[in-house]
Amino acid sequence: MFSSLKVRNFRIYWFGMLVSLIGTWISQVAQSWLIFSLTNSAFLLGFVGFLNSLPVLILSLFAGVLADRLDKRKILIITQIVFMCLAFLLAILTQFKLITPGQIMLIALLNGAVMAFDAPSRQAMVVEMVGKAHLPNAIALNSVAFNSSRIIGPALAGVLVAAIGMSGCFYINGFSFFAVIAALVLIRVEFKPAHQQHHGSPAKDLKEGLTFIKGDSLIMSLISMVGVVSLFGISYIILMPVFANDVLHVGVKGLAMLMSASGMGALIGALILARLGDFKGKGVFLLVSAFVFSFALIVFALSKSYFLSLMMLIFIGASSVTSVALVNTVLQTNVPDRFRGRVMSVFMITFAGVMPFGNLIAGSLAQAYGVAVAVAAGGAVCVLFMTVIVIRFPEIRKI
Q1: Phi-psi region of 40 (alpha: psi -120 to 50; beta: other; left: phi over 0)
Q2: How far apart are CA 115 and CA 352, in angstroms?
Q3: Has residue 192 been placed in a domain?
Q4: Is the pLDDT of residue 209 over 90?
Q5: How many angstroms separate the Cα of 4 from the Cα of each of 271, 275, 321?
Q6: In a domain, 191, yes or no
Q7: Which of 13, 129, 201, 300 lies at a 20 to 30 A Cα distance from 140?
Q8: What domain range includes position 20?
Q9: CA angle, 318 as apex, 317 and 319 as ends, to 5°?
Q10: What is the DSSP code string of 185-204?
Q11: What whole-number distance in Å separates Cα of residue 345 and Cα of residue 338?
């Protein structure tokens, strides 16, 4: 289950990343509550999510070209330092009661711009740290780290918001970046550019990568699955404060538990994948996970029971992480090294870049028709699309 942690570089990076991610989730819960307390608007929750992810859509393709040309470790050191500075800026503005919704939106936009350059390099560097033999396990363990933090971070946030305030949560996030920056400084990854000779322009490299992706039906179908889930399914997260406050009436501590339940499920899913390793039947597992996610999302949207909502969030978390991690694994094991950064940039666009539009759609629907309608409609769209995928792309079942 933890075989890739035997590799020194990945072990150091993984623990540093885990600490940083816990800080990020503490901050995310506090920021959601801050926005909702300042505005009482479901639409603005969606709009801030829109701004946070919009730069990923615009900049990720260029960032993927850079990831194939430059030292990924150095790119990540720079992006993590900028993330840290933005976290401290949010903390200071909140502490001195200078924070406004407009400032939160600007910081969200800047965070998204940094994420656009961070994510392709982070995804593509995994194989450089562990090699292809450990790649499925390493991708699964990255999901373990991300989703462990989704349990620990929100649970801590529920206590910390009351104990040290929202600004204290933002300070904790800022300090947590020191862990991943130190890890990146300590690891030694040999830089091997995908193109040994750069006679072409970045624009030519970009066109070459997009042509490769377009010509592979398996890659296109997998990426489209991630895109639909991100556009219509994942936006339930940014509406969680409305479910906690207006539907289930459980307050900020209940919000933390809801977020943690989703993280608990995701952790279970990630551990199962880590244990399975390079197993047969990935395609069937992927399709089953996608349908479980879609139906559980609909039940969660319609639930008025706190307990049932928690149970559905566990299923949503487990099925979403297994779906995305399996797509990530299949892509990275089937893509030539020279295209890895560009393919992962397109993966990140469909995973995170389309989220702003999903957040905006969900926020608008929630404002007009209520959060239950907004989230249930997204789940229904996912069910219909996955049905089309099963019919149109039978080769996925053979993976």
Answers
A1: left
A2: 9
A3: no
A4: no
A5: 13, 11, 19
A6: no
A7: 300
A8: 3-186+208-398
A9: 95
A10: HH-------S-SS--S-HHH
A11: 13
Rounded-to-integer distance, Cα 36 and Cα 241, Å: 7
Cβ-contact 4, 130 below 8 angstroms:
yes
Residue 144, amino acid: V
Residue 176 within a domain? yes
| Number of domains into which the chain is organized | 1
Query: Rounded to the nearest 5 degrees, what angle is found at the Cα of 158, between the Cα atoms of 152 and 160?
Result: 90
- Give the span between the Cα atoms of 193 and 156, in whole angstroms: 41
Query: How many residues in the chain?
Result: 399
Query: pLDDT grade, residue 73 (50/70/90)?
Result: very high
Per residue in 314-323, pLDDT (tens digit) is 999 999 989 9
SS3 1: coil
Shortest CA distance to 382 belongs to which of 248, 230, 275, 264?
A: 230
What is the DSSP secondary structure assignment for residue 280, as one 8-state letter? Answer: S
CATH code at position 293: 1.20.1250.20
pLDDT by residue (tens digit) across 306-358? 999 999 999 999 999 899 888 888 888 778 877 878 888 888 888 877 877 88
Structure confidence at residue 346 (pLDDT): 86
d(CA 326, CA 323): 5
C-alpha span between 234 and 218 (Å, rounded): 23
Residue type, 257: M
